[in-house]
Design a protein that fits this description.
Elements: E1 3-9, H1 13-20, E2 26-28, E3 40-46, E4 55-57, E5 61-65, H2 70-75, H3 77-82, H4 86-91, H5 97-100, H6 105-111, H7 117-123, E6 127-131, E7 135-138, H8 139-142, E8 152-158, E9 163-169, E10 179-186, E11 189-195, E12 202-205, H9 217-229, H10 241-261
Parallel strand pairs: 1-3, 2-3
Antiparallel strand pairs: 4-5, 5-8, 6-7, 6-8, 9-10, 10-11, 11-12
The protein binds flavin-adenine dinucleotide (FAD).
InterPro entries: CO_DH_flav_C, CO_DH_flav_C_dom_sf, Diverse_Substr_Oxidored, FAD-bd_PCMH, FAD-bd_PCMH-like_sf, FAD-bd_PCMH_sub2, Mopterin_DH_FAD-bd
Protein name: CO or xanthine dehydrogenase, FAD-binding subunit
Organism: Anaerobium acetethylicum
Length: about 260
Amino acid sequence: MFTIKNYVKVKDLEEAYELNQKRNNVVLGGIMWLKMGSRNIQNAIDLSALGLEKIEETEDSFEIGCMATLRQLETDSRLNSYFDGAIAESVKSIVGVQFRNTATIGGSIYGRFGFSDPLTCLLVLDTYVELYKKGIIPLSEFVDMPRDNDILVKIIIKKDTRKVSYLSYRKTATDLPVLTCAVARTEDGWLAAIGARPARAKLIRDERKMLGREPEEDEIAVFQSFVEENTVFKSNMRGSGEYRRHLAGVLLRRGIRAVSERGE
Ligand SMILES: Cc1cc2nc3c(=O)[nH]c(=O)nc-3n(C[C@H](O)[C@H](O)[C@H](O)COP(=O)(O)OP(=O)(O)OC[C@H]3O[C@@H](n4cnc5c(N)ncnc54)[C@H](O)[C@@H]3O)c2cc1C
C-alpha cells in the first residue's frame, strides 16, 4: 500500500514541475500503477485542474493531454478512424472498462513499461511527447531516455497517410501481453514495433526496403528474419525468449498482411 502525506491540486505546470523536483514528491496520473507500490509520498501532485484530459484534432495532428484516459483513446472516433482502429485495439485488452476509465495515457507513456500496449502502437505512428521543460521530442527517442523529473504534458500524433495494424498475444484476455506488435506502412516504407519482449518496445525500420508496397510472402519472410535476428527476446513467467521470437514472427506477418490488404 502506498501512502500520501500531502495532496496538491496544482494551479499550473510550473508549480507541478517545481514540486516534482523533490524525490519524495510524485505526479499522479490515474494512480492505477502507483497504488500497486508501497511508496511514501510526501506531496502527491494532481494535474487534474489543468484541462489536460482533452483529445484535440488540428489540421495536421492529434493532441492528447496527459490526463486523457485509455478509455477516451479507445472510444475517440476521430483518432480511430484516422489510424485504422489501431489505437483502440492497443488498449482494449487492458484489464477492463472501469480500469481504462481511470488509467491515463500520460502515466502509461511516462512509465515506458516493458509490457506496454499503447507504447508499442504509438511508436509506429509519427508520435511526439511534449515535456514541460525539454519540449517536444519524438517518442522513438523518449522511449530510450532515462526517467527524470519532467512533466509529460501531451502526446502529439502527426497526421499522414500511413496504414497501421496492432496485434498482441495474451495467454488469457485482460492479462499482461506475452508479446505486442505494431506495423505501419508510410510513404517511405515499412516500420514495426515489438514490445513486451519483455522490455520496452523496440522500433525497427525497413531501411533496406525488404518489403514492397504489397509484399509477397518471400519478402515478408526476409523482413521477419531480419526482425527476429535484430531483436532481443527474453524469458519471464509468461514465456521464454524463444517462444516470444516465434510469436513476433507470427504477429509481424499478420500485421503486414493486414496493412497490405487495406491497399493504399
Ligand atoms: C493490474 C494492472 C494491469 C495492467 N495491464 C496492462 C496491460 O495489459 N497493458 C498495458 O499496456 N498496460 C497495462 N497496465 C498499465 C496501465 O495501463 C497504465 O499504464 C498504468 O496504470 C499507468 O497509468 P496511470 O494513469 O495509472 O499512471 P500512475 O499510476 O498514476 O503513474 C504511473 C507513473 O507515471 C508518472 N506520471 C503519471 N503521469 C505523469 C505525467 N503527466 N508526467 C510525468 N509523470 C507522470 C507517475 O508519477 C508514476 O511514476 C496495467 C496496470 C495494472 C495496475
